[in-house]
Fold this protein.
Amino acid sequence: MKKYLLAMAVISHFTLVGCNSEADRTLTTPNKDVSRTSVSNTLWHDDKAKMDAFITELMAKMTLEEKIGQMTLFSSDWDVTGPSLRGDYQDKIKEGKVGAVFNAFTASYTRKLQKMAVEETRLGIPLLFGYDVIHGHRTIFPISLGESASWDLDAIELSAKVAAAEASAEGIHWTFAPMVDVARDPRWGRISEGSGEDVYLTTVIAQARIKGFQGDDLSKPDTVLATAKHFAAYGQAQAGRDYHTTDMSDRELRETYLPPFKAAVDAGAASFMTSFNELNGVPASANKYLLQDILRTEWGFEGFVVTDYTSINEMVNHGFAENDEKAGELAVNAGVDMDMQGSVYFDYLAKQVEQGLVSMQQVDKAARRVLEMKYRLGLFEDPYRYSNEEREKAEIYKDENLQAAQDVARKSMVLLKNDKQLLPLSKSGLNIAVIGPLADSKEDLIGSWSAAGDRYEKPISLLSGILAKVSEPAKVQYAKGASYEFNNQDDSGFSHAITIAKQADVIVMAMGEKWDMTGEATSRTKLDLPGNQQALMEQLKALGKPMILVLMNGRPMTIEWADQNVDSILEAWYPGTMGGPAIADVLFGDYNPSGKLPVTFPRNVGQVPLYYNMKNTGRPYSKDSAEQKYLSRYIDSSNTPLYPFGHGLSYTTFAYSAISLDKSTLASDGSLTASVEVTNSGKYDGEEVVQLYIRDRVGSVTRPVKQLKGFEKIWLNKGETKTVSFTISAKDLAFYRQDMSYGAEAGEFDLFIGTSSDNLQKSEFTLSANSDL
Ligand code: BGC
């Protein structure tokens, strides 16, 4: 199994630029010959002493206001995701009171702003440019949830790498990604921005993304700083309503929501973003338990912490601070280094330091952390190194990037259903009706949080993808048919859709959600197809023709009717700029689908939250006990999901052997190997995601019915067999025990390997003794 522990290296030589006087230029120039070493659990390297000296010298020259400037982030007025609080940010840059700007990009614009900082301020400290580069910058890849469905860490890392290359060429130094919030409630629109419901999967994907963004050397101009967000537990907003309260036990917090953040620290993430929510009564942006006890003390995080957008100010609404000023004091004293857009540090911090409410030491620590990242990026050496017009021209939308986007998109698609092997379709001889509001849409393809991606010209629609694929384009007919707008029941397009469907051999329906129905502030109470898409599907069904549903959406949907009535269903998410060709590759068999769901699809909203690794309860329901009443079940719905976590079909089939274990007892300091043989028993070459789950049968606290502990994506030619082995040790069995100590408990374990969380071979082993970790 691939492990994604990041070995990072840093810049090796610096000169200070932008100083206005000769005296300022006497700062130490770091040694040019420092060799790079790598460490796994820290951001710093063997030139730390030189960096420290450089920054100490710089900070000795800085006024309190200039230090607070390093703690201040304002949005450019280009592209705000909330109210812009400071239209005059450019003047403030020139005064040295703004250290970082977001929503500003292009080589020329960032160069212009950088020039203000470097040439017009007293010390010439360069700006840091941030932006939400979430799933691509200009070339847009599938939404993060979609990419996660690939279970392909190399593909995910590549996507982040391409995004970093494009963004950094346009002057961006810092992305507000990855989002590593575990999310189990599909009503929450931001489920689309993460890696789904599972802790392990989210953790390894977080590390792959950080590695893709940051590379192994931040001084390389094609890398950007990563941000692990939103710290913490934002994904558990009550009732799936965005920004809502979270309240949970420490055990749940530590077992489910924190591990991906810890993994982000281990991978060297440069920054953390606080979340909007309160956690157990304390807003995340003033939460000392999260920001000090856990992040700094337990985990040793050495990067900087930024708030989410105006989340300091929002503590007034939370009822945690009486005004912005007090909120700022609470935030800075809790360990928030940078205020995003709130203007609170900018307005009040100097006064608070003078009054002794905030220590100078706290301000120094925060400013230093930000300056360190600027140093590591090489900005003191050349503040314009990322604002490179030539590189911008060459990098943006280059063929290689578009090809990568197409490849990652097809890897992200999940074949949910394929009765009678209707898919793949033949490229010739078929009359195809392509129907639905997403069939010829470009704007929806790139989904939400699509950075600087072009929404209207560049994306290639599904219809175009199909037309380019078939040998007789004249046999393809298109009708939009229905609407995906919530309240639009206008069925005037139905008759045309039905007419072309009648002439067709096969109907391909492209339906789902409009792109802005997922992402931030897009919580839903229903998870069905919006508008009158369902009604049109039902009328098309009456024609009795083979039907394929291509879904584009950013969350699990309740599509039980489609599951029962449509022959084949392909979950394509929002697949990105190259979405159309990527879907066509899958529909016509140029790519054999290999995606697996990173999140459970419920049958109905009433089952939510529904995830594979729930607890068994004292009255578990099973098919064998179906006649009994007093069991943990619904009387009007099955307990089972429509499509479980880990589910995803292929055009071929994979046969699993029984599991073989090299031993039946695992010593607390030893390891055990579990192997299966997987055979491609079908007619196509293809990839399979072999999944490992473990259940701890009895614990000092109850354990989930199973937990993903590993996976491997393998390629098998038809007829080929491969042995897949997983090594398990006590650390894979560890959890927070009754006394909150972390470790594994001796006893019996079930071990499962298979193709989906509900389709597994089973074995068992014993852990001989407790193990403290
Ligand atoms: C979002 C963040 C994002 C920030 C900056 C906020 O509204 O919650 O995820 O990074 O805006 O655009």
Summary: Residues 133 and 175 are 5 Å apart (CA to CA). Residues 1-44 have pLDDT under 50 and may be disordered. The radius of gyration is 27 Å. The longest helix spans residues 360-377.
